[in-house]
Amino acid sequence: MTYYPRDLVGYGAHPPHPRWPGDARIAINFVMNYEEGSEPSLPDGDGRSEAGLTETPASPVPVGQRDLAAEGMFEYGARVGFWRVMRLFAERGMPMTIFACALALERHPPAAQAIREAGHDICCHGWRWVEHYKLSKEEEREHISRAVESLQRTTGQRPAGWYCRYGPSIHTRALLLEHGGFRYDSDAYNDELPYWVTQDGKPHLVVPYSLVTNDAKFGRGQFSTADDYFSFLRDQFDMLYAEGETQPRMMSCGLHLRLIGHPARAAGLARFLDYVRGHDRVWVARRVEIAEHWHRTFPYEPGMEQIALEAP
Questions:
Q1: Pfam families attached here (predicted)?
Q2: Of the residues 100, 143, 226, 263, which has the maximum number of CB atoms within 10 A of its CB?
Q3: CATH number, domain at 185?
Q4: Residue 165 CB-density burial (10 A; 0-12 exposed, 13-18 middle, 19+ buried)
Q5: 10 Å Cβ neighbour count for 303?
Q6: Is residue 214 part of a domain?
C-alpha cells in the first residue's frame, strides 16, 4: 500500500479504558491561552496589527498602520481578563494548564508570578503567537529554543508540552524531539484520548486538544451569550460523562483572556465550573498530569504508535 501520512482509524471501536485516577468517568482540562503581548504588531516589527479573536476580527485599519483598537482589546485580556479567570479557578480550587506564549509572559511579570504561585502547569504556545507553518525550519527551531529558555526563566518551570497557534508545520514535531524535554504535544484535534506516534524512530505522546469546546467561538460569532457557552459545554460534558460509565475520555476547554475574561462571558465559565464540581468521578486535571498518567499506564511498546509525519 502506498504510504499515506494520516491515520483515519485511530483506536477504532474499542479504545483503551484510560483508567483515570479515582475511577473518573471523564478527565477535563481547562486551558488558558496566554497570548496577549506576543501577537503580530507593528511595534514588534511585523508590519501589521493582529485582531484575531477580538470583538472586531476583521480589522478596518489598513495593513501597515497600527490598529490601536485591536491592541487595546488584547491589552484588556492581560490587564483585566487574566485576573478574573485566575480568580474564578482559585475560588473553586481548580487547576488549569497555561498555553503560554513566552514573550507575552516576559512582558507581564505579575502574571508569570501569579501562575507560579497558583501551581498551574505550562505548555509552550510558542515564542510568539504566530503561525508556525509560515516559518522556515530554521526560524521555527529558533522560536522553540527561545520559548523554552524564556518560560523557564519567567515561570520557573520547563514547559512539559507544546501547542502551536492553530496548527503545526510539517517540521514541528521533529524539531520538538530534536530540542528534547517535551513529554507531549497537543498539535492534534483528532481524538479524545492521548496516543503514541513515532517521529524519526522515537516514541512521542500526543495529548489532543479541541477547538470545539473553545471560547474562540465567541470571536467567530458562534457563541453570543454566556448561556450559549454554558449550554454547549454542558452538553459536551453530559454525553462524555454518560459514556464514561464504560468508556471514559477527556475534554479540553480552551479559554482566551480577551474573550472569556469579559464579565458577560465569564459568567458562563463560572456556571460551567460549578456544574462540573457538582458531579462525582470527575478528574479536573492539568494537561501534564494527563500526559504523565498515560506514560505510566500505557508506556510505549512497539506497535502502539499511530502514523506520524514521516515516511517509513
A1: Polysacc_deac_1 (PF01522)
A2: 100
A3: 3.20.20.370
A4: buried
A5: 6
A6: yes
Structural domain range at position 39: 21-297
Q: How many residues are given for the chain? A: 312
| Structural domains of the chain, count | 1
Distances (CA, A) of 82 to 94, 114, 256, 299: 15, 10, 9, 36
Tell which residue, 131, 109, 120, has the closest CA to residue 86: 120
pLDDT value at position 310? 61
Say which range, 1-5, 21-25, 123-127, 276-280, has the weakest mean pLDDT: 1-5
